[in-house]
């Protein structure tokens, strides 16, 4: 699948692109904690680049636009 790299502009997410673009599945908890690059999405409400989930409840692992070297956690429901 082809990924539009423009989605990553403005986010300091080099570590994700270099190390985790294939995602990360945690075997012991049966959870896909970090999404593969083709499943990453942009949360337009908050300008967050969502790269994963710790499970349920609408919590997202994300990069925040304009924040260098900081990964954010969005606690709002994304439903």
Description:
With 79 residues, the protein is mainly β. It has one domain. Strands 3-4-5-6 form a four-stranded antiparallel sheet, with no helix packed on it. Strands 1-2 form a two-stranded antiparallel ribbon. The chain has one helix at residues 14-19, and strands spanning 24-26, 31-34, 41-43, 48-52, 60-64, 71-74. The protein has one helix and six strands; from the N terminus they run αββββββ.
Strand order of the largest sheet: 3-4-5-6
Estimate percent helicity.
under 10%
- Which outline best applies? globular
Overall mean pLDDT stands at 82
Number of strands: 6
In total, how many domains does the architecture comprise? 1
Q: Catalogue the unreliable spans.
A: 73-79
Supply Rg. 12 Å
Largest sheet: 4 strands, antiparallel
What count of helical segments does DSSP give? 1
- Global structural class: mainly beta
Proportion of strand residues: 25-35%
Distance between the termini: 25 Å
Helix and strand pattern: HEEEEEE
Compile the SSE list and pairings.
Blueprint (H helix, E strand, L loop, with lengths): L13 H6 L4 E3 L4 E4 L6 E3 L4 E5 L7 E5 L6 E4 L5
Antiparallel strand pairs: 1-2, 3-4, 4-5, 5-6
Question: How would you summarize this macromolecular structure in one to three sentences?
Answer:
This protein has 79 residues and is mainly beta. Helix content is 8%, strand content 30%.
């Amino acid at each position: 699948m082809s990924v539009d790299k423009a989605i990553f502009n403005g986010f300091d997410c080099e570590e994700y692109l270099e190390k985790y673009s294939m995602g990360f599945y945690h075997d012991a908890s049966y959870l896909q904690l970090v999404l593969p690059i083709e499943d990453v999405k942009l949360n337009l409400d908050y300008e967050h680049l969502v790269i994963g989930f710790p499970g349920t409840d609408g919590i997202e692992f994300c990069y925040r636009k304009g924040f260098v070297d900081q990964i954010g956690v969005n606690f709002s429901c994304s439903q």
